[in-house]
Design brief:
It is built from 15 helices and 23 strands. A hairpin with an 8-residue loop joins strand 1 and strand 2. The structure holds zinc ion (2 copies).
């Protein structure tokens, strides 16, 4: 069995691992390296779509492998058609540092993951505006068709016959998938978004375990302990082990986050805003519980509402138990006396079902009854403060510290907004990753013959 780390070595994220033998080639994750990408690019300086893969190859953001990339991009950059060289992609979870570059893959590569991972990627594609976001479907690019006037039009997402669903296959625990000479098993783990898993690759030459991203202190910590048991049984030759926090001893606790938020709410008269990772539904549940124990409603934004609805029974939160904040958009018709159909035109198609729901609320409600609500928010929604004009409000930062210069600047801007509105900021967060001592304990338990550190800036600490 050959193991090639194409991304995720000596860096946090960007995992791309190629496992192969004479007959079979599979990829474990195909993510974006935020550190490599932001070394050259920024919000307003992005890789150009017009150069297809060239800008990504130039800076080694994507590996120049043949037989894995989408044909429309290859054609556009003058490369010949290639035979498919990869049998399958296995996705550990839907965080972008593990999945973003699916966009560039051929549509005939089967993708194996959990149901939650597929749904999250579908939601990101449907509710986002990214240039490179064909995660769930694949839309033919750089193609033309003959329009009704007999002239050439460019293919885009409005032309349905050029959109195909990617080949997703849902994995279930304890059911191995056979790909060529490998058998692959999905093992659920606890991480900061639903549906995360690790993988065990079984082969005649020995077995390999891949941790994906994991932690032991979340609402589903027992999953990660079960992962250790299963990995141990596989008696692996190799363990690809994540080490995001290998250099940190602090053991985090999701339960601790709930207690802090609960106390902060109880001491506050005005609105409580909580800034948190929006895909982390467990954190949303933590905030919801803290709000409920203070007899307040938890208010979510449209994207979070859409994700919770799509996850259905797989979400620990039921959309019916939440309030949905309808933001002012486009013409800002939500608080004007105009016909409903005109109001709806302000919103994207996926948003429209929520606008007049019974549990939908507008900013006026937050303004009139601030003591009744805890509001899910982010820096990108902070301009709503102008409409709400909150008094005695607090802002709880429940996500990680900024890890790039761009993020630090936004953090500064946020502080200016909070100062302007006299809002005091607190913090309550638990990481998505295991601590150093927990990682060491896990390796000791699994007893692989070899450990390959991944997703870490400190591989030397694994010695
Ligand atoms: Zn990651
Ligand atoms: Zn992750």
């Amino acid at each position: 069995m050959n193991i090639e780390i194409l991304g995720g070595k000596n860096e946090i994220g960007g995992n791309k691992i190629l496992i192969s033998d004479d007959d079979t080639r599979i990829l474990l994750d195909f993510g974006m390296s935020f550190s490599k990408s932001s070394y050259y690019f920024s919000e307003f300086l992005q890789p150009r779509k017009s150069s297809s893969l060239r800008d990504f190859f130039e800076f080694d953001l994507l590996p120049d492998l043949s037989g894995i990339y989408r044909e429309d991009y290859l054609r556009h950059m003058g490369r010949r058609k290639e035979d498919r060289s990869i049998d399958a992609l296995f996705l550990s979870h839907a965080h972008m540092d593990h999945s973003a570059y699916i966009h560039f893959l051929r549509k005939d590569i089967p993708i194996f993951c959990t149901e939650e991972t597929k749904i999250i990627l579908q939601c990101i594609e449907e509710t986002g505006k990214g240039t490179f976001s064909d995660f769930y479907t694949y839309c033919e690019t750089f193609s033309f068709y003959l329009n009704k006037k007999g002239k050439l039009s460019r293919v885009d997402r409005r032309k349905e016959e050029y959109i195909t669903e990617r080949k997703y296959n849902i994995m279930k625990p304890k059911r191995k998938v056979e790909i060529g000479s490998f058998e692959i098993e999905m093992v659920p783990v606890d991480h900061s978004l639903p549906g995360a898993c690790g993988f065990i690759v079984y082969s005649d030459e020995g077995n390999l375990v891949y941790s994906g991203d994991l932690r032991f202190h979340g609402l589903n910590g027992e999953k990660s302990y079960d992962f250790i048991e299963r990995a141990k049984e596989a008696d692996p030759e190799v363990f690809l082990c994540e080490g995001t926090r290998i250099n940190e001893d602090r053991k985090d606790s999701e339960a601790g986050v709930k207690n802090i938020i609960k106390d902060l709410i109880s001491q506050t008269k005005g609105i409580v805003f909580v800034e948190h990772p929006k895909k982390d539904i467990d954190r949303a549940k933590t905030i919801y519980d803290a709000a409920k124990s203070n007899e307040r409603d938890f208010v979510v934004d449209l994207k979070l509402a859409y994700l919770i609805e799509k996850l259905g029974k797989m979400s620990p939160l039921d959309i019916k138990d939440l309030k949905i904040l309808i933001p002012k958009k486009g013409w800002g018709l939500i608080d004007k006396e105009v016909p409903k159909n005109q109001v709806l035109k302000d919103y994207e198609t996926w948003e429209r079902d929520f606008i007049f729901k019974d549990n939908a609320i507008k900013y006026e409600e937050l303004k009139d009854n601030p003591e009744d609500y805890v509001v899910s928010t982010s820096f990108w929604e902070i301009n709503q403060l102008i409409d709400i004009k909150p008094k005695n409000a607090i802002w709880i930062k429940s996500n990680c510290e900024p890890f790039s210069e761009d993020m630090e600047l936004d953090e500064k801007r946020k502080k200016h907004w909070l100062e302007h509105f006299g809002i005091k900021e607190y913090s309550a967060h638990a990481s998505g990753h295991a601590s150093g001592p927990e990682i060491k304990e896990m390796i000791k338990e699994i007893k692989p013959k070899e450990v390959i550190p991944i997703h870490t800036e400190h591989p030397e600490m694994f010695v």
